[in-house]
Amino acid sequence: MFYSKPWYHWLSLLSFLKKMNQSTTPERQDPLRDTYREGFVTNPAHYEFLLQKDVALLCIDMQYLDAAEGYGVFKEPEDGSAHPIPAEAKRYYFDSLNKRVIPNMHVLQNCFRSHKLEVIHTRIQSLTQDGRDRGKGHKRLKLLARPGSAEACFLEEVAPMGDEIVINKTASGVFSSTNIHYVLKNIGIQSLYVCGVYTNECVETTVRDACDLGYLVTMVEDACTTVTQELQDASIKTLKDRYARILQTQEVLDEIHQLVGDRFP
Fold it and tell me: pTM here?
């Protein structure tokens, strides 16, 4: 029975729960949480920019180089040695990519297109065939997607359509290595919905840089992935309540349908 325990047992339990609650409250984990949330997460300008059509869906690096089995970074070594990415990590990555990220991104793209909102794509691609123009980081990683190569091609399910903007880059961060900031300003974009791969690399770098440059950012969690759940969770924890809103695909769809609807036929 509930009352069969001595009173001091329940007092001790309540004290323990209180301590646990205090140790895990967001305020104690991050004393600046409320300040950042007010500026970047709960800011009503998110909705104002959406109503004004000053938003874009930014799809990060959905290409054969880093999102297709047997190509680019997932190509088996020619010397027969073991692949540097463990089999378990590859299974997690491609399962999440094929079952969650690609379908969700496809739906997001269609939603933005149907409401006349910008869909922008980034990909890793050098200017030259030998890649001499690449950033030093990509040279050190031996990461190369030549113009016209299979690795530079977008995945068909989420490829650009019509005259959608494509930004080529040779670094993790699209803002540090391209003219995307200039392009976004020219077309009046003030808020970005970000999705793609890898969450803990190019996506996270893009989110941070965009926030620093004054954009309001929404990261679509279930339209992003990386090679382990631990890395995915770590990035989300870092970005949440700091640099971006973290929403799910359905939340984004509901937001657009409710606020935009047929406002922009």
Answer: 0.86
In a domain? residue 1: no
Q: What letter represents residue 107's amino acid?
A: V
Do 102 and 157 contact (CB within 8 A), yes or no? yes
Q: Indicate if the pLDDT at residue 54 is higher than 70.
A: yes
Domain total in the chain = 1
Is the pLDDT at 30 greater than 90, yes or no? no
The two tokens of residue 46 are 């998110």
Given a cut of 90, is residue 4 above it in pLDDT? no
Question: Which residue, 246, 176, 186, 239, is CA-closest to 54?
Answer: 186
Q: How confident is the model at residue 20 (pLDDT cuts 50, 70, 90)?
A: very low
In a domain, 36, yes or no: yes
Question: At CA 31, angle to CA 27 and CA 33, rounded to 5?
Answer: 75
Task: Return the pLDDT at 36.
Answer: 85
Query: Is 13 inside any structural domain?
Result: no
- Per the structure block, which two tokens stand in for 218? 């929404």
